[in-house]
Amino acid sequence: MAMCRLAYRPFCFSGTEGILDLSLSTTLPELSSSHRFMTTKATSALWAPSAERVASAQLTAFMQFVTTSTGFDAGGDYFALHQWSLDEPAAFWQAVWDFTEIQGDAGETICDDPKALPGCRWFPDATLNFAENLLRFSDDREALVEIDEGDARRVMTYGQLREQVARLAGWMREQNIQPGDRVAGFMPNCIEAVVAMLATTSLGAVWSSCSPDFGHQGAIDRFGQIAPSLLFTADGYVYNGKRCDSLERAGDIARAIPEIKQVVVVPKLSPQPALGEIEKAVSWKSCLSGDLPALRFEPRAFNNPLFILYSSGTTGVPKCIVHGIGGTLLQHAKEHALHADITREDRFFYFTTCGWMMWNWLVSGLARGCTLILYDGSPFARDGRRLIDAIDEERITVFGVGAKYLGALEKSGVVPAESHKLHTLKTVLSTGSPLPHEGFEWVYRAFKPDLHLASISGGTDIVSCFAGGVPTLPVYAGQLQAAGLGMATAIWNEAGEPVVGEKGELVCTQSFPSCPVGFWQDADGSQFRRAYFDRWPGVWAHGDYGEVTPEGGFIIHGRSDAVLNPGGVRIGTAEIYRQVERVPEVVDSVVVGQTWQDDVRVVLFVVLRAGVALDERLSQRIRDEIRSNTTPRHVPAKILQVADIPRTISGKIAELAVRKIIHGESVGNRDALANPESLALFSELPSLRE
């Protein structure tokens, strides 16, 4: 069977209905002095929470908890609470620990120097175990529901989950897996992947995963750096109706990494996979056989390694980013409880693979006691309706997807409100790339008007968010609602000064618990500091280009390293994508800067609907759309049609790879791309030389 590659295949659509219009003056609480901005006109909100929703939000309960435990009263003002979380970080993070009921001993010291970034030690005396916090419940409520492109459905309760983790952890102890050992997963998004991660972390070992649609070299580039002792793999997976074999690549990985002692094979395509294809292979079933051992949790320090995640690797060998146990747990608990308002009653879904940080973020939802809905397959199965079907079929309350999925769904003609009930849905989360203004408006037209739409932004680098949703604040088109609590997120100009209403670099100016432990095999920390702190010492420069809005929210305009610079004017790529997405004939696009005649010219590549060819008339319409809604500087000097756009395996546009190709440079790690063959389309365009 051939290897399957993940790639978004957008469709085309235009919406119809109007949007909810709410006045800023009646919905936005008084901003605290540090977040009160001048604006020349009122901004209309797309949605505002009802009084009942505000009253029942965990964020509201947290404010009351803070008042009782510390004496600080935010008066219901999120921005005042945010400023307090920066002014009193020790008190804030201790309050998060207590409010979310983190299992473990916090110790006496919360942080030694919150201004030291990097360098601050959070909860240096604490001991805890990640898996213990995710397995605090043991009842018969559904913990995991696994669904696929068809009608298959598997369920595991919290009690059953604890039992499977105990069995697998017992077997792993027999294999002498020790705290700090690395365990790798080459797995689809399935129940067994969650069990393997929890068993690993219960032992104090370190979990690292990538999805099986990586080529074997892409997986080796990642796992080969960390030398795992065990490899978990499925025999295969199904994508877009095709059965895709994983065993051959898993065998290649095991042969290339001598430290792998055994390969555990999970049956997904066949009840009895051909284990003989892999040396040192054992079956999943055999690992769970035997007597049921007691479930034990190895106490670990707050800053001991938990996960190793990887940079995209499109410009070289991926960086191995090490995340700590306590920081990851505490940050996710804060974001799930206070920013996404997830409780035991919720059914939480995120479309992700095991190779994207959103999988780690999703799985941490177990600590809230909710039900996780796991899906592996094409998001556009069932004629583009598979994920929307799941909302009704699985009674999903919190629905997370990438912004590109929402854009593709819009163009596909799917209007969920017309074909589905959506009664249980209360929140839609969007990330992966900027969701444009029109995307916000479409969600409220096409889904339901009473919905918390939270665009969130952070990254693999921090396995969490710098800015995102706030369930007690209004939603404005195109905006992430606010900086996350405890996150000193700002936009700085070239001079290193904070700005509002101007574009600049997204930075974080204070330490936070989910700051990475560092990079793997970077003993002196030089690579880590170079990646984030070279530009402004002591300040995290994230690499996003954005702006702070008068409402206190954020707009992300794209990656800083992809910013266009024609005539010395900096332009975020998202500013152009937003306009191009208005053109019905265009289903996908990528824009880059090309060095040309001692300057930079903007080049736009478009994928068009089937049967549509790019002619001068359509090119002019695209240019007019861009010019009328931005500036003449944004208008591409060249618009060229291509058959496909290169994307990373997590679905992000590979702008840097395209820029390298059109300049005749090599792309260092094509295995990081879902569709590396598409790069050839950009090297064969003679008009780029004109």
Task: Give the SSE layout.
Blueprint: H1 24-27, H2 51-56, H3 58-70, H4 78-87, H5 89-99, E1 104-105, E2 127-128, H6 130-134, E3 142-147, E4 153-157, H7 158-174, E5 182-186, H8 191-202, E6 206-210, H9 216-226, E7 230-234, E8 236-239, E9 242-245, H10 247-256, E10 262-266, E11 281-283, H11 284-287, E12 300-301, E13 305-310, E14 320-324, H12 325-339, E15 347-350, H13 357-363, E16 371-375, H14 381-384, H15 386-393, E17 398-402, H16 403-412, H17 416-419, E18 427-431, H18 437-446, E19 452-455, E20 457-459, E21 464-468, E22 482-483, E23 489-492, E24 504-508, E25 518-519, H19 526-532, E26 540-548, E27 554-559, H20 573-580, E28 586-596, E29 599-608, H21 616-629, E30 638-641, H22 655-662, H23 680-683
Helix pairs in contact: 3-5, 4-5, 7-8, 9-10, 16-18
Briefly say what this structure is.
The chain is an alpha/beta fold and 690 residues long. The strands form 8 sheets. Strands 4-3-16-15-17-18-19 form a 7-stranded mixed sheet, sandwiched between helices. Strands 6-5-7-10-11 form a 5-stranded parallel sheet, sandwiched between helices.
Describe the structure.
- The chain is an alpha/beta fold and 690 residues long.
- The strands form eight sheets. A seven-stranded mixed beta sheet has the order 4-3-16-15-17-18-19, sandwiched between helices. It has a five-stranded parallel beta sheet with strand order 6-5-7-10-11, with helices on both faces. Strands 23-24-26-27 form a four-stranded antiparallel beta sheet.
- Strand 28 and strand 29 form a beta hairpin.
- It is globular, with a radius of gyration of 24 Å.
- The two termini are 43 Å apart.
- Mean pLDDT is 90; it is low at 1-41.
